[in-house]
Specification:
Elements (H helix, E strand, L loop, with lengths): L3 H23 L2 H4 L19 H32 L4
Length: 87
């Protein structure tokens, strides 16, 4: 059977394997696992309005978008009623 040297070797392997594994996968992460274009650029993200004028302009855009959607919905319902389909 094995002696003390074998036990010391086994202990070293048991100890060094997870450390080596963590070292290999834990170093140089930016170049090893990086995906180009994964995160959006600053120009592509939403901008939070800060000034009063920007907030008002954003509100007007939202209201205009809602009006357009409501008009489309009303036109679709009118077209369904004209086709004979009652809701």
């Amino acid at each position: 059977m094995g002696g003390v040297n074998l036990e010391v070797f086994r202990f070293g392997v048991y100890l060094m394997f997870p450390i080596g594994f963590m070292y290999y996968f834990g170093t140089n992460l930016d170049s090893r696992f990086a995906v180009e274009g994964f995160w959006p650029k600053a120009e592509e993200t939403n901008k939070v309005p800060h000034s009063r004028d920007e907030i008002k302009a954003e509100y007007e855009k939202i209201v205009a978008r809602q009006r357009v959607l409501m008009e489309r919905r009303a036109m679709q319902q009118a077209a369904r009623r004209d086709d004979g389909g009652e809701e």
